[in-house]
Specification:
Pseudouridine synthase; disordered C terminus; 3 domains; 17% helix; Structural Genomics Hypothetical 15.5 Kd Protein In mrcA-pckA Intergenic Region, Chain A; alpha+beta
């Protein structure tokens, strides 16, 4: 493999980065977009430490020189499929789209077709390759049943720049969620590490185990709803990710005893309490960032899809008051709002943390 055929990534391990397996370290440090891709390249002897190949169980030490040889992409076996895309912004460099609930982002076990990636391949001949052949163009993911705004890159440089911006918290990503119970404060910060559940592999949980990674979620309360005969009330919340762990908002909300309404993994799983929803009430409603090529500031919002809007409307008569932020946001979440009227919700100051965890 010649230098012309590949792209190398190098990194010197700092003292505060030492410890933990190298496959996890590579993903957490942002050297590669995912742990699974790190594992694949380690198995192919494309990862060297101080000039020597290593296994995924190697634990980096301070001063280690890590070099990752990224081989050229092989032709993908993923087929393009004519699946409609709801595009909110597109130019020659990137796409911002609204993903519908029920759509898996990329092919994986059990979902080799009918994914967002299959749709993107039919839509564009040019997609970034940094995340691997099964994830062309993908900058970040949404869960299958989470709806809303996502970024897609059309080349490697843009993909790298957007992923770096997310890691540095330069991309403003906000979600709206309806949770069980009454959240009293108007704002808060949840700083609790998340790792894989030891007994249920599909689930994540808050843990102090060595494999857990720091996870930070800021939130603003938007609206509160009174308790009813079958429930203890609800709270509509806007969440801002400061890190990007799997199921982060869902895990954090369950951790503070306010699980997301309709959540099949972490929720209460009672259809009446879940307002008839068949999926979690979680929607990526706003995204803001500086275009990595043109420098243009792009801020987009996306109203609630019908199923979430209907669930919210079903408890409208139990409204117990809007917060100041709720007054600003609720009108932009209503279905049918014209696109040009929902492009600039005022930025707000969320509680911050001194920790510098990446995506």
């Amino acid at each position: 493999m010649s230098a012309q055929d590949r792209s190398d990534v190098t990194h010197t391990v700092r003292g505060d980065e030492a410890g933990g397996r190298i496959d996890a370290f590579i993903a957490e440090a942002g050297l590669l977009p995912s742990r699974s891709l790190a594992e694949k390249l380690i198995e192919r002897n494309c990862v060297r430490v101080n000039g020597q190949t290593v296994t995924k169980r190697y634990k980096p030490r301070a001063g280690d020189q890590i070099r990752i040889e990224i081989p050229p992409m092989q032709p993908s076996e993923i087929e393009a499929e004519d699946i409609p895309l709801d595009i909110r912004f597109e130019d020659e460099y990137m796409i911002v789209l609204s993903k519908q609930a029920g759509l898996v982002v990329h092919p994986a076990h059990g979902n080799w077709t009918g994914t967002l990636v299959n749709a993107l391949m039919a839509h564009s001949d040019d997609l970034g390759t940094l995340s691997g052949e099964e994830r062309p163009g993908i900058v970040h993911r949404l869960d299958k049943d989470t709806s809303g705004l996502m970024l897609v890159a059309k080349n490697d440089d843009v993909q790298r720049a957007l992923q770096s911006a997310i890691k540095q918290r330069l991309v403003d990503r906000r979600y709206v969620t309806l949770v069980h119970g009454r959240i009293v404060p108007d704002s808060g910060l949840i700083d609790a590490p998340i790792g894989r559940h030891p007994k249920e592999p599909r689930k994540m949980w808050v843990s102090d185990a060595s494999g857990a990674r720091q996870a930070v979620t800021s939130f603003q309360t938007l609206q509160r709803f009174e308790a009813g005969g079958l429930d203890d009330g609800y709270t509509l919340v806007e969440c801002k990710l400061q890190t990007g762990r799997t199921h982060q908002i869902r895990v954090h909300m369950a951790y503070i005893q306010h699980p997301v309404v309709g959540d099949p993994l972490y929720g209460r799983r009672k259809i009446k309490e879940d307002l008839g929803l068949q999926r979690q009430f979680l929607h990526s409603w706003q995204i803001g960032f500086d275009h990595p090529v043109t420098g243009q500031r792009i801020e987009l919002t996306e109203p609630l899809p019908k199923d979430l809007a209907d669930a919210l409307a079903s408890i409208a008569d139990r409204n117990d008051g809007l917060t100041a932020r709720g007054t600003e946001v609720l009108g932009l979440l209503e279905p049918g709002v014209e696109f040009q009227e929902r492009t600039a919700a005022r930025p707000i100051d969320y509680p911050e943390t001194d920790t510098a965890a990446g995506e």
